[in-house]
Design goal:
Blueprint: H1 12-19, H2 25-33, E1 37-39, E2 42-43, E3 56-58, E4 77-80, E5 84-89, H3 106-113, E6 121-122, E7 125-126, E8 137-143, H4 146-157, E9 162-170, E10 177-181, E11 184-186, E12 194-196, E13 206-215, E14 220-227, H5 234-241, E15 269-277, E16 284-288, H6 293-304
Parallel strand pairs: 8-15
Antiparallel strand pairs: 1-2, 1-3, 4-5, 5-8, 6-7, 9-14, 9-15, 10-13, 11-12, 13-14, 15-16
Amino acid sequence: MIVSVADAGQRLDRWLAARLPELSRARLQTLIEGGRVTVSGRARKAAYRVRAGERVEAEIPPAEAQELRPEALPLEVVYEDDAVLVVNKPAGMVVHPGAGQAGGTLAAAVLAHAPETAGVGGQRRPGIVHRLDKGTSGLLVVAKTRPAYDSLVAQLAARTVARRYLVVVHGLPTPGDGVIDAPIGRHPRDRVRMAVRPPGQGKRAVTRYRVLERFPAVPAAYLEARLETGRTHQIRVHLAAQGHPVLGDDTYRPRSLPRPDLDNEGLALHAAELGFVHPLTGQPVAFTVALPPRMARVLSRLRSRQSPTAPARR
């Protein structure tokens, strides 16, 4: 990872936190104090101020392989039967264990709620067929049996699972609706981040978007986005590449873009609708959840800043 001119002067721990969002601050401190983070080949303290052009390398030991333990965490169940479980994941909850996040995961909560998911799919990802980023809220389906798991995985591969997201972005996208068809792969210099890549250097990724409401006074816009593929950070990367990063996204928001006070509500991205063919009945099913309060507050504040005579809608 190379420090840009715009990032020069930041504390090392804060600079790393923005690039390794999956690691907790405590985990980063441990890595820095243990000498596993180097700046141009030298171990530095957390308070070290990074300089433009310096290369930062972080050695992240793999998480110890261990059996996932069920945790009786709050779980908002939207629908459940013998084959599937549809939940509304809150922002801030990690879907499954990973580096720096061993407990408090959705997977552990699912295992406590539905013990029969143990052994369905990966050992530490019981029944999990797709995921949402930590900062993203909304609908996620879990398979409770192996046949259901295989069916849902096949549907995802065939791109027949319908997923509609609601998102607030910086700026005013033009045109008001469109298709972003751009391959996504690892960032060439920052291996933790994803990026739009040249043809042949990433996997195909397709996002359809439509502007629902515009806020020229900020400027910002409220969109719906539909996934045809499911790449890591796809919506966030695609919209940022168009010059319209998601509000609250410190990972993909350019440092040159001022951070508005609305960012304090977190990542403004919500999986509002989910549809698939039920593995048992063979019939299409669809689920919808309302915007979480955090995003409703963002929209309320955006609307309050519009001129009474300025049209905000599409």
